[in-house]
Amino acid sequence: MCTDSFTNLTDGCLAFSLSFSVCFCHAVYVFDRLRPGVSLVSLQSREKPRGCAGCNGKIRDRFMLQALDRYWHEDCLKCACCDCHLGRMGSTLYTRANLILCRRDYLRLFGVTGNCAACSKMIPAFEMVMRARDNVYHLDCFACQLCRQRFCVGDKFFLKNNMILCQLDYEGGHLNGVR
């Protein structure tokens, strides 16, 4: 993994996430607020219409999108796979192999896999996961490692020595040296 900076690949430490923090080593353009990936630009009345990078037609609408240093009709900036309108999806887009993609399709096509912290088996990049600090788990593996109690959203759990514990096992000290 390289150490280059990147932003917004995940939403932080959410319980459910589509991926985990990995560096795609410049294979994807991910933009932050300083350089928005997709921004809505107002066309001034005296300004000459610009050409759309999607359809090559003139943009005569009041608003246009600016992405990848080009201008687009709002309906022309779409994911190459699912045709979702990227301007309506937020300000992040991905590009690779001359394709402009939404996050879901980028991860489906080019996503990086990782391993579950509990079972060490592979987790595909598009699979839903549970996260605890820097650890990533299959949904089925996210359980107390002593009593195997599964957690629901909002349940308290404890991470001690990289082991997931339910509140009862953590407070009861059922594991020597865990507390």
From TrEMBL:
One of its GO terms (biological process) is positive regulation of transcription by RNA polymerase II. GO terms for molecular function: DNA-binding transcription factor binding; metal ion binding; transcription coactivator activity. Residues 50-112, 114-176 form the LIM zinc-binding domain. GO terms for cellular component: nucleus. The chain crosses the membrane at residues 14-31. The keyword NADP does not apply. Pfam families: LIM. Keywords: LIM domain, Membrane, Metal-binding, Repeat, Transmembrane, Transmembrane helix, Zinc. The keyword Secreted does not apply. It comes from the Eukaryota. InterPro entries: LMO_RBTN_TF, Znf_LIM. This is Rhombotin-1-like. It comes from Echeneis naucrates (Live sharksucker).
